[in-house]
């Protein structure tokens, strides 16, 4: 059991930069998820920790040990690959036992010398790992005879059996059917709680990231954007990219200005007025709202955006309305057509083409500056009369 | 609904008949010469069945005499010839296959400058007829004192085998995902260890095919052996086959020649049957998706 720390890691490939100055530290026993779109560099981080790839700059520490010069086999890390990478020529049992047979352990009488594990030791550990994952009945089969879910469990068992210092998981659930995936997710969480070991998990699936992570690393184009708990990433995103990337359905953004008003400041985008606390100067700003912070009504009352229903997505428990905001029509008001927002609502009350009114919850507003970073000091409040 | 389905069924049957007909013609075409060799070898009349225009010989015309003569009436002894052939071909297969495994590994899984050009270079080399090399080989090996020695033939045979087999293994290894090798590295192996314990076992099918090809070439080689072997003690089956076929009198005993050829081909058949599973797997270059 041990943590892992990345210090100013950069990775340059022949003609592209995969990672730029990435630093974060995973605590002992923590489950950290690296979330990013494909090509964001998230797998490269994992491969650098594993030692399969060598960073161009920066340092990797496992525990307190600087491991930059260590071969993968000397880092005592287990990795689960997206493809599972089971050995096709070996039975499940031998797949799981493989690392135990390869690695020697210190001798009891003389810790400076090493010995091979005995057949009984190996058998005992293989069976315990197989039991933990419920694959005891597949041990004599070849990987090709297994279902996707079983292969994934074998890959996990192969990692667990070694009792490594650190688990690296590269999108291990992405090749599973949607149905198995959610149960595999819960099982992975259960295994982590049982083993209490350090997990670093890579995914592009944000709901997977939100459910699994103790803390979340959001990465885009090789840059670390935010490293925080899922709750904070959701409620206090570091910038506009994180705000739109994390959270489903996607956040809505309105561009407008902060103006001086009534001795304070307010965000005004006709017909909406939000009083802004903490603002020091007027200027352009982008305001974001989560879909669940929007209220949809049949008619646009005062302070509500008139909108037209453009699409309805029935998700079962809640429904999703795609609404196109309309300008207020007042002279001087900005034309709003083209801004589509998603709102959770009782969709059965609406049909495509209906008009509706969208009200925002001012205290839920997130403010973003021109550079995309969230303006942490700004806070929305209902505007006074 | 029904007639349409029935029509499709007939269509499928028709297609199957047509494809079988084509295959049967191909098989007959391929096996007919072999058949003639077989009946000639068992015939009492020492002329080729094809010239005698016998399609189905009578039982009374059959004899094992040609086989007896082929196996015991030769100089050097048949066993000595077989031994030499097996030494040459077996060594070439073993060495060629071993080198091909490393060549394929290097060309497939290592990134080094000029890798692509090297692959093309090897491919181009394999296009040149090997006969071109006989004369330079001779001068080279004569200087090295390797004429009429076992290494003198095993070296060029192995070298010839490794060119094609190396490419074969490379292509096969390309189909093995890098993940599998990386999993082995994470499991605690060095690259060498991963090669021997994971990649190599996965390559058995293609290595079987490579070994087979590396065996058959030298086993049936006449040209290079004819130039390099000067003493009868190192004579091979293929050389001797030619010697039997061309007698001083100019009249060949076709019965003995064909009998000799059939006995000579048996080791290849045995080899093929023993490794058939691997050889066919190697030919189809099966994907190893775990």
List keywords for this structure.
heterodimer; A: 385 residues; alpha+beta; Rossmann fold; OB fold (Dihydrolipoamide Acetyltransferase, E2P); 2 domains; six-stranded mixed sheet; six-stranded antiparallel sheet; 22% helix; B: 290 residues; mainly alpha; MetI-like fold; 13 helices; flat; disordered C terminus
Alpha carbon gyration radius of chain B = 24 Å
The class by helix and strand makeup of chain B works out as mainly alpha
User: Which regions of chain B are unreliable across 5 or more consecutive residues at pLDDT < 50?
Assistant: 285-290
Classify the helix fraction of chain A into a percent range.
10-25%
Biggest sheet of chain A: strands side by side, in what order? 6-9-10-3-11-12
What is the SS-derived class of chain A? alpha+beta
Give the rounded overall mean pLDDT of chain A: 88
CATH uppermost class of the largest domain in chain A = Alpha Beta
Which architecture of the largest domain in chain A does the CATH hierarchy give at level 2? 3-Layer(aba) Sandwich
Please name the fourth-level CATH homologous superfamily of the largest domain in chain A: P-loop containing nucleotide triphosphate hydrolases
How far apart are the termini of chain B? 42 Å
Structure in words:
The complex is a heterodimer of chains A (385) and B (290). Chain A is of the alpha+beta class. The longest helix of chain A has 18 residues, at 178-195. Chain A has helices at residues 42-50, 92-102, 119-133, 148-160, 178-195, 206-212, 230-235, 240-245; strands spanning 4-13, 16-26, 31-35, 57-62, 65-66, 77-80, 105-106, 114-115, 166-170, 198-203, 215-220, 223-228, 252-261, 264-269, 272-277, 283-289, 294-297, 305-314, 319-325, 340-345, 355-360, 366-368, 379-382. In chain A, helix 2 crosses helix 3 and helix 3 crosses helix 4. The termini of chain A are far apart. The relative contact order of chain A is 0.12. Chain A has two domains: 4-241, 3-Layer(aba) Sandwich (Rossmann fold), CATH 3.40.50; 252-382, OB fold (Dihydrolipoamide Acetyltransferase, E2P) (Beta Barrel). Chain A has a six-stranded mixed β-sheet, with helices on both faces. A six-stranded antiparallel β-sheet of chain A has the order 22-16-13-14-15-23. In chain A, strands 17-21-18-19-20 form a five-stranded antiparallel β-sheet, with no helix packed on it. Chain B has 290 residues and is mainly alpha-helical. Chain B folds into two domains: 2-63, no CATH class; 76-255 and 265-284, MetI-like fold. Helix content of chain B is 74%, strand content 0%. Chain B contains 13 helices and no strands. Chain B has helices at 2-42, 49-52, 65-72, 78-109, 115-125, 134-143, 150-174, 178-186, 191-202, 204-220, 223-228, 237-245, 254-284. In chain B, helix 1 packs antiparallel against helix 13 and helix 8 crosses helix 9. Chain B is flat. The A-B interface holds A 50, 52, 71-73, 77-79, 81-89, 98-99, 102-103, 143-144, 151, 158, 162 and B 177, 179-180, 182-190, 193, 197-198, 201-202, 288-290.
């Amino acid at each position: 059991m041990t943590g892992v720390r990345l210090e100013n890691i950069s990775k340059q490939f022949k003609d592209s930069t995969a990672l730029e100055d990435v630093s974060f530290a995973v605590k002992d026993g923590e489950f950290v998820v690296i979330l990013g779109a494909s090509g964001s560099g998230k797998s490269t981080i994992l491969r650098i920790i594993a030692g399969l790839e060598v960073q161009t700059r920066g340092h990797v520490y496992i525990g307190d040990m600087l491991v930059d010069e260590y071969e993968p086999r000397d880092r005592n890390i287990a990795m689960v690959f997206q493809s599972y990478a089971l050995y096709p020529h070996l039975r499940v049992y031998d797949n799981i036992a493989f690392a135990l047979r390869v690695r020697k352990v210190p001798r009891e009488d003389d810790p400076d010398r090493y010995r091979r594990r005995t057949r009984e030791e190996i058998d005992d550990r293989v069976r315990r790992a197989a039991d933990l994952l419920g694959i005891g009945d597949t041990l004599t089969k070849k990987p090709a005879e297994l279902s996707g879910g079983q292969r994934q469990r074998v890959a996990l068992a192969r990692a667990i059996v070694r009792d490594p210092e650190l688990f690296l998981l590269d999108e291990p659930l992405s090749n599973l059917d949607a149905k198995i995936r959610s149960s595999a997710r819960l099982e992975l969480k259960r295994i982590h709680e049982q083993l209490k070991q350090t997990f670093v998990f890579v995914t592009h699936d944000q709901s997977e990231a939100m459910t699994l992570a103790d803390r979340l690393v959001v990465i885009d184009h090789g840059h670390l954007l935010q490293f925080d708990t899922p709750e904070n990433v959701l409620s206090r995103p570091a910038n506009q990219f994180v705000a739109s990337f994390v959270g489903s359905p996607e956040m809505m953004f309105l561009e407008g200005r902060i103006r001086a008003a009534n001795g304070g400041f307010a965000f005004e985008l006709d017909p909406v007025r939000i009083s802004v606390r903490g603002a020091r100067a007027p200027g352009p700003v982008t305001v974001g709202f989560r879909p669940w912070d929007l209220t949809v009504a049949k008619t646009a009352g005062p302070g509500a955006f008139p909108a037209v229903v453009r699409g309805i997505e029935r998700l079962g428990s809640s429904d999703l309305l795609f609404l196109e905001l309309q300008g207020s029509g007042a002279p001087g008001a900005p034309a709003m057509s083209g801004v589509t927002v998603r709102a959770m609502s009782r969709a059965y009350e609406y049909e495509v083409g209906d008009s509706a009114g969208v009200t925002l919850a001012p205290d839920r507003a997130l403010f973003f500056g021109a550079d995309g970073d969230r303006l942490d000091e700004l806070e929305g409040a209902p505007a006074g009369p | 609904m029904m007639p349409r389905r029935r029509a499709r069924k007939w269509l499928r049957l028709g297609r199957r008949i047509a494809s079988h007909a084509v295959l049967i013609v191909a098989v007959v075409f391929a096996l007919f010469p072999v058949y003639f060799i077989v009946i000639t070898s068992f015939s009492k009349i020492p002329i080729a069945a094809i010239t005698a225009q016998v399609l189905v010989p009578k039982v009374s015309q059959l004899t094992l005499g040609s086989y007896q003569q082929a196996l015991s009436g030769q100089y050097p002894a048949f066993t000595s010839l077989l031994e030499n052939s097996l030494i040459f071909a077996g060594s070439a297969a073993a060495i060629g296959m071993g080198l091909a495994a490393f060549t394929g590994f290097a060309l497939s899984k290592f990134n080094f400058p000029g890798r692509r050009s090297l692959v093309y270079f090897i491919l181009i080399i394999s296009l040149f007829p090997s006969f071109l090399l006989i004369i330079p080989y001779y001068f080279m090996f004569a200087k090295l004192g390797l004429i009429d020695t076992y290494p003198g033939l095993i070296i060029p045979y192995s070298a010839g085998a490794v060119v094609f087999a190396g490419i074969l293994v490379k292509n096969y290894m390309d189909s093995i995902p890098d993940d599998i090798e990386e999993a082995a590295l994470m499991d605690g192996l060095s690259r060498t260890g991963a090669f021997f314990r994971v990649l190599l076992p996965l390559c058995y099918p293609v290595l079987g095919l490579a070994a087979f090809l590396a065996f058959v070439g030298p086993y049936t080689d006449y040209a290079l052996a004819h130039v390099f072997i000067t003493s009868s003690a190192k004579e091979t089956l293929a050389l001797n086959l030619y010697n039997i076929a061309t007698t001083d009198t100019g009249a060949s005993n076709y019965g003995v020649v064909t009998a000799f050829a059939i006995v000579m081909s048996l080791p290849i058949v045995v080899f093929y049957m023993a490794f058939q599973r691997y050889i066919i797997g190697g030919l189809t270059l099966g994907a190893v998706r775990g």
